[in-house]
Amino acid sequence: xxxxxxxxxxxxxxxxxxxxxxxxxxxxxxxxxxxxxxxxxxxxxxxxxxxxxxxxxxxxxxxxxxxxxxxxxxxxxxxxxxxxxxxxxxxxxxxxxxxxxxxxxxxxxxxxxxxxxxxxxxxxxxxxxxxxxxxxxxxxxxxxxxxxxxxxxxxxxxxxxxxxxxxxxxxxxxxxxxxxxxxxxxxxxxxxxxxxxxxxxxxxxxxxxxxxxxxxxxxxxxxxxxxxxxxxxxxxxxxxxxxxxxxxxxxxxxxxxxxxxxxxxxxxxxxxxxxxxxxxxxxxxxxxxxxxxxxxxxxxxxxxxxxxxxxxxxxx
Length: 316
Fold this sequence. Notes:
The protein has helices at 59-72, 98-114, 120-134, 141-148, 183-196, 198-221, 224-245, 252-264, 286-299, and strands spanning 4-14, 25-40, 78-83, 151-155, 160-163, 171-176, 267-271, 278-283, 302-303, 314-315. It is α+β, with helices and mostly antiparallel strands.
């Protein structure tokens, strides 16, 4: 019987913040994976509420498990252990969606244990509802990426997912800022802006919505040069939103990474809510990406060795 499942992390390529207001997001799976295992009750290993990883515990896993047991009619007389070490740095999170990946892996494991057809729609329904019990303010883009893998176009209000092919000639680099960030706190500041100055919020969000549409269309059309140009626009629009909301969305590390990407001939922006975590950079040639990598290394930033795309949640 299946006792293990894994799911990938995610990289937001476009649509940050705007996805919460209905814009399409482009999201890539990252082949650094969360693993969930079944461990029989009484096991003397490091289990805390069924979760092996010491920080933080993953209530999304418990919520997804309970939901699956109720809806699939099974009872798992065992504990679950979670390993998200591939999605974390030595001391801080990287911002690659570890909690969403853990929820997706749990859904895959529970469906496999129930002997139900593990189609992505079933897994996504369980994982997104389990994740929303804990983080209802999220868009679900990270969960969709963890379930479906590859490269997808995601629309939050309808929870629709569509596969997208990687554009020919587009080269990506993923950079860790060295600084962990709280998505929840940054989103809360943006919502505070909306409450106190709706006109300013609408102005900032209008630009993000516009460029999010451009980026989604460019990815689906496979237009690498257009993606690079719009990425720079999107990063600037995220910075403007942060300035208006008194939130460090594009803080000094992310500003430096964006500047280096421009100098190398490409563009970079935060991947996710900003404030630190990771940035995504795009280039049209390997030479540009190589130059950017050297600049990042000289500045003390780590270019992560990651594979974008690849399989989503799988059991076994």
